[in-house]
Specification:
With 97 residues, the chain is mainly α. The protein contains 3 helices and 2 strands. A two-stranded antiparallel sheet has the order 1-2. A hairpin with a 2-residue loop joins β1 (52-53) and β2 (56-57). The longest helix is centred in the last third of the chain and has 21 residues, at 61-81. The chain is flat and about 70 Å long.
């Protein structure tokens, strides 16, 4: 029983190390080919999708700047006014007596 398990695991590992060729990509090599070389060979894309980040339109820079500044202001107000140290008495987190 143990020999069969060892044989099965050995065959499984041997099968995982076999080299597999990818489908033909027309001489496009991932990590090597540039956008310029691909466009020179195949032309411009037929469709362009606008990229969104977290469902927000990133092409409208006024909105992006406004959202960023609002974020910073909200964080500043939160950290400044909501997390003040208590005046007198026991420090925060101290056990009640």
């Amino acid at each position: 029983m143990r020999h069969r398990l060892v044989l099965f695991v050995g065959l499984l590992l041997a099968a995982m190390t076999v080299s597999v060729d990818a489908a033909e990509w027309g001489l496009i090599r991932p990590g090597v080919s540039t956008t310029a070389t691909v466009r020179a060979k195949y032309g411009a894309p037929t469709r362009v999708d606008r990229q969104k980040v977290d469902n927000y339109d990133t092409e409208n820079w006024v909105y992006v700047v406004f959202a960023g500044v609002g974020s910073w202001i909200g964080a500043f107000i939160s950290l400044t006014f909501q997390h003040r140290k208590p005046r007198g008495g026991a420090p925060m987190g101290a056990s009640p007596e």
